[in-house]
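Recap from last week: sequence in, structure out.
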Amino acid sequence: MKEKNIFFDLDGTLLDSRERLYRLFQNLVPASKLTFDDYWALKRNKISHKEILINQFAYTAEDFTRFEQIWLNNIESAEWLSFDKPFEGVTAYLQELSKTNSLYIVTARQLEDQALQQVDKFNWNRFFEKVFVTNGLQDKFELIANSIKTSSTDWLVGDTGKDIQTGKRLGVKTAAVFSGFLSKEVLMEYKPDVIASSVLELNFNA
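Predicted structure tokens:
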């Protein structure tokens, strides 16, 4: 019998998706001279696209609405997903962890088929009991609560404040990683049980 359930967010937690988001932003905003580091310094401090575009590029509300629609139509397309890559060491880490624990992916992706294809591409299906995808219809809490009986020894791992809030609602332990979309300082505001620079640093038996 497996020791515990561990729920992993996908983007920013197991997969490095930063290049995909940065490249698409630059493609949609030709006037942008932001470097990769410039862009992520803003995003990791919770500066939204709307704030960036209005404050730095004089976008109107109508301009932003148009940008947002094009962004949503493209961000999960195969062309842009091709820039994603697993964080170094994650595949071996998951293989070892899956021997004694039940692992799940829980992602807020809008397109389930694309998410499943990506998991298959990295040959991760063998490690996970199930991949939960919100599809824009449910939130992560609902997906887990309606499918898995959790306990206080289970874990939810993610790179956003919402992930930590979801774990707390479920009554499981929470681990925040600042390998993804938010900085350590921002994530600490949500009071996770553990915070680390990478999933590789997490010890679920501590």
